[in-house]
């Protein structure tokens, strides 16, 4: 892990909060579902945080940081202890993680489509 001596003088990681969250999760070789279960949220919620559609509350941010071995400051602002992304990760594991993430997103999209179809049917009936 990379440790910072002074977060005020470090060059910040200019990625978004969701991007940093996703990279930290990948560095730990965890799927969205695994991390979501660990911190007690739905996988769809975590996927929304990673895609910057919403942001975690403070208590969840601290849980995320602890689970991922980074500081809350790094997750929020890109300064502080970040994950060691230089470790060699098995390509097969990375692909499995990406496939699992896509499955979660696919399921959430299917549910949203069904909801919208119900709204369209109710509008036609009115």
Q: Could you write a compact summary of the structure shown?
A:
The chain has 126 residues and is an all-alpha fold. The protein has helices at residues 17-27, 32-39, 43-50, 58-68, 72-77, 91-125.
Tally of extended strands? 0
**Helical percent range?**
55-70%
Please tally the helical runs, counting DSSP H or I stretches of 4 or more residues: 6
The rounded distance between the terminal residues' Cα atoms is 59 Å
Main sheet makeup = none
Structural class: mainly alpha
Q: What order do the helices and strands follow?
A: HHHHHH
How much of the polypeptide forms β-strand, as a percent range? Answer: under 5%
Mean pLDDT: 83
Uncertain segments are 1-7
What overall form do the CA principal axes indicate?
A: elongated
Computed over alpha carbons, the radius of gyration is 17 Å
Oligomer: single chain
Give a verbal description of the structure.
- Helices cover 63% and strands 0% of the residues.
- The chain has 126 residues and is mostly helical.
- The N and C termini lie far apart (59 Å).
- It is elongated and about 60 Å long.
- Residues 1-7 have low confidence and may be disordered.
